[in-house]
Every structure is written in C-alpha cells, then in structure tokens.
Amino acid sequence: MRRRFFTLDVFTGQRFAGNPLAVVLGPQRLDTAAMQTIAREFGHPETVFVLPAERAAHRARLRIFTPTRELPFAGHPTVGTAVLLGLLDGGSGSREMVLEEAVGPVVCVVQPGRDGGNASFAVPRIPERIGTIKSAKEIAAALCLNADDIDGKSFPLVRWSAGNPFSFVCLTGLDAARRARPDLSRWNDAFGSDGVGVFLFCRATADPANAFHARMYAPTHGVPEDPATGSAVAAFAGPLAASGQFADGEHSLIVEQGYEMGRPSLIHLGMTLRQGRLTGATIGGDAVTVTEGSIEA
Predict the structure, then answer these.
(1) Does the structural domain 2-124+286-296 have CATH classification 3.10.310.10?
(2) Torsion-angle region of residue 186: left (phi > 0), alpha (psi -120 to 50) or beta?
C-alpha cells in the first residue's frame, strides 16, 4: 500500500541543517514491526507515524521510532510533526493542537509559515532526577576526554528524565565539547547498558546569543550523535532548576546543538520556577519541509 510521507529539518529554519525527521501519514494496518522497519529504512534519528487521535478534541496520535526502538516521547518529532500538521490543516494563524504520545497528551502551539513554521509544546512531565552516574574518570574515558575536561562542580553528574532518561555531563568548554567522541568499548561501563542518552553541555557557546552548547549521543538507540534533542533539553530543565542558578520567574534560554555535525540547531527552552522549584517547561523551535513522497508499505 502506498503511504504519503514528508521529511523535515527541525530546530532550524534552513534546509539541510537542524535535525532530520520523517513523518508517515496514514499508517493504519501497519504493525509495530513494520513501523520499526520503515524507521530503519529512513535512517533518520526519528520517524513519526501519524494515526487518528483517540480523543475527538485532539489532533492526532503519534508513534515515534528511532532506527532501533520506539520512544514514548521526543522533542524534535513533536515540533516537526506539529508544524507539518499545521501546514496541512491550512491557514496562517497561530493555533493550539494536542498530540497524543505514549507519555501522555502534549499541548502544542503552532505558527505555520511558508514551507514550515514554528511550534512549541509544554513538557508533559516535570523532569525528575533518576540517579547519579559514575566518576568523572570513567565518563571521560568513555568520551575520549581527560578527567579535567569534566566540570562536576557547576553541575553534578546526574540522570534526569522528562519522559526519556538522559545522563547529563557538564564540560569545561567548547574545546572539550569538540574533542568528545564515544568510545563504545567503554560506553556501557560508564553509562550502563540500558540505552540512556548522554547529553554533554557547556556554558561557552559558538554564538554568544545562546545560553548553552550541547552534544547528545545515544549509540544504543541507533543514533551515534543527534543534531538536536528536544527531549534531552526538556529534561535539562531539571538540573538547571536544581542548580540554584535561576531565580523564581520565567526564563527563556537557547541551547545550540549539532554544530560539530555541520547541522546547527537551536532549541528554545522556557522554564517557570516558583519557590525555587521548576513548575513548568516548554520546548520550541522552527521546522522546514524538505521532501514529500510516498512509500510502499
């Protein structure tokens, strides 16, 4: 059966930058194994299958796959699919839509534009700390870095999740970020074998307008490196709020990612703090369509 698909570049307004995404429309009668096979065929960090919503007030139900597994939630698929559905629905005004994901309903605000647009969503779960990770020495070895490249004073080595778990590693600067690369022979010893993504970040940035520079590795997800990881930045709101470096109120930050891959991406993070606690977060960015076609499946 022939099924319509689009590809988009997400967290960018320019084609061939940002994070690529495939979106398959009308996947009814495809089982999980078939969806996984199609995601592997596209080979993008994620592929989304858009199904009818289970609730009439919602726009659609999404299933999200990396090349090797299904995810309960992901940021760039949510932003990219929201922009695409806004384009397909027509009109130029800003509108709200709710997308059903395995993590729960995700409320999005979409502003369609020419061949793309902008979308943001409320993080469906407040990030929670889910544990610590091993010593700086083991982490550094798994990243082909030196122990003094790890900045454990500004931010501790911890795991947080807002739907997908990530290990957060603060680096001393851009030089360390640029030299980092996974050593798969040491990866599981440092980070475990449970498929947790590893989010590297530092305060030094390529563009001074941005707040953090980041890289993300998830080799056990079939993603050696990700150009932009919205679900990681959603979870990143947790350690940021817990650091005590942000006062109560509203905060807007831009995280740059993908620069080392030649796919610069900008992820907009909004945080709300009340009495020193994170009470809400949003993730947003631009997306642009790249291809449209059909797939036999």
Answers:
(1) yes
(2) alpha
Q: How many residues does the chain have?
A: 297
pLDDT band at 221 (very low <50, low <70, confident <90, very high): confident
| SS3 labels along the chain | CEEEEEEEEECCCCCCCCEEEEEEECCCCCCHHHHHHHHHHHCCCEEEEEECCCCCCCCEEEEEECCCCEECCCHHHHHHHHHHHHHHHCCCCCEEEEEEECCEEEEEEEEEECCEEEEEEECCCCCEEEEECCCHHHHHHHCCCCHHHECCCCCCCEEEECCCEEEEEEECCHHHHHHCCCCHHHHHHHHCCCCCEEEEEECCCCCCCCCEEEEEEEHHHCEEEECCCHHHHHHHHHHHHHCCCCCCEEEEEEEEECHHHCCCEEEEEEEEEECCEEEEEEEEEEEEEEEEEEEEC
pTM value > 0.85:
yes
Does the pLDDT of residue 171 top 90, yes or no?
Answer: yes
- Please give the mean pLDDT across all residues of the chain: 96
Active site residues: 46
Domain ranges (residues) in the chain = 2-124+286-296, 128-283
Do the domains 2-124+286-296 and 128-283 sit in the same CATH topology, yes or no? Answer: yes
Domain 128-283 has CATH 3.10.310.10: yes
User: Among residues of the chain, what percentage have pLDDT more than 90?
Assistant: 94
- Strands 212-218 and 197-202, by their bridges, are antiparallel
